Amino acid sequence: MAISPTEVRHEPASFRDPANRVFHVGDEVLRGLDPQAAQHWRALTGSTFFPALVAARKVCATEDAPPTLVPAATGTPWAAVLRHERIPFVSHPYEWSFSMLRDAALLHLEILNAALGEGFTTKDGSAYNLQWRGAEPVFIDIGSFEPVRDGEPWAGYRQFCQTVLYPLMLTAHLGVDFQPWLRARVDGIEADELRPLFTGARRLRPGVLTHLHLHGAMQQRNAAASTTEVRDQLRAAGFSRELLLATVRGIEKLVRKLEHRPAGTHWSDYQRTCGYSARDRVAKEQFVAASVAAGTRPRLVLDLGANDGRYSRLAAGHADYVVAVEQDPAVVDDLYRKLRSEGQRRILPLVLDLADPSPGGGWRGVERAGFAERASADVVLALAVVHHLAIGRNVPLPEVIDWLAGLTAPGGAVVVEFVHPEDPMATRLLANKPAGLFPDYRRDTFETLLAARGRITDRLELPSGTRTLYRTVMGG
Length: 476
Known about the structure:
Blueprint: E1 8-10, E2 20-25, E3 28-33, H1 35-45, H2 49-55, E4 62-65, E5 80-84, H3 98-116, E6 120-122, E7 130-133, E8 136-139, E9 145-147, H4 157-174, H5 179-184, H6 191-194, H7 208-221, H8 227-236, H9 241-257, H10 270-273, H11 278-293, E10 301-304, H12 310-316, E11 322-326, H13 329-342, E12 347-351, H14 371-374, E13 377-382, H15 386-392, H16 397-406, E14 408-419, H17 424-431, H18 443-453, E15 454-461, E16 467-474
Parallel strand pairs: 10-11, 10-13, 11-12, 13-14
Antiparallel strand pairs: 1-2, 2-3, 3-5, 4-5, 6-9, 7-8, 14-16, 15-16
Helix pairs in contact: 3-4, 3-9, 16-18
């Protein structure tokens, strides 16, 4: 039975390729294909490489669905409709650590290499074509596959450079975190922006001369030429599929060379320096585990300020999926490497400043949804976070509580830790602020604000006596 168009939501990030469009119907993710895209899909399913990649979980599971499930784009029915597996939590490349972006890049190149071997290519090379099942990357843009044309380069090369290769080189070669650069522009980092940073001896670092300086020079030289003219020039110069394959393998070799192991930071050793006693730690872990396990099994848990993932792992034992958010890219990278080595598919680590979370971006500010729009969690863990926001970042307590409530699904729970003003960590933060700046930073005020937004179902004062944990059902 056809679903009413009023029940269908267009995916805001899916509009740049008119040949196919993604829709959401309830929990289902559907893709409409025009006649040419449908033909490409049928050829794809008849290939050897594509089913193998799906079976290996490197490409999202996809199947045919009734064409009546989604409305026509311009009055003409879609030639075919596909049903995709649903990714537990959509993230953006500027929320990934260095190793995450690097692994996503290698998967993209592996898929492209396999496709080229059977006469297919991908239309684009965007980092946004990949998502995550925990610490496992997965390619999601099925509509990107099309037959390769002899004598033509990879159409996605420029996108790959701007959203993947340049960010990796920025961090690997200069030690500069790429996340703010990618967040600033949905199309990635332009060669002109990066080139001034790679002059002199830096030009000789791996990949810089070929993919930054020469690529930028070619773009400038061909700026006035049409895509067709550039393709004709390449064919005339003898550009072949074999050369294309060699180019892709060369990029893969370069990406494997790019490494970044940052020096330790304050947060890297937080579990040792945070000041919890052994009794505090045991009591806190028991409270968190019981709070997550209470009631219906959560589909999604947000662990805000996850650090090394200790409580994310606890939550994962009682929930379908956990998103572990941490501000320090080095800490997230270390956590990701450990989760990847364990084959963990239910904990997704992300780089995010809680006081400045990812906003909406791209076209009309909705092409890439902000963190708050994506985060509707059944349980939100805010452990040892409130004092950093309220004192360290000067966010009023009512704003902190409202923010936590906004990240929680209807009827969901917030498990929050309040660090008393006399706690050593709070005392240290307050010492760096003018006297009397935070008169309302008190436990009774915090409890009143929390009770106004929900129903406190459980609380625990840790044995040290300077920290209290609460489980609150928001809106309850």
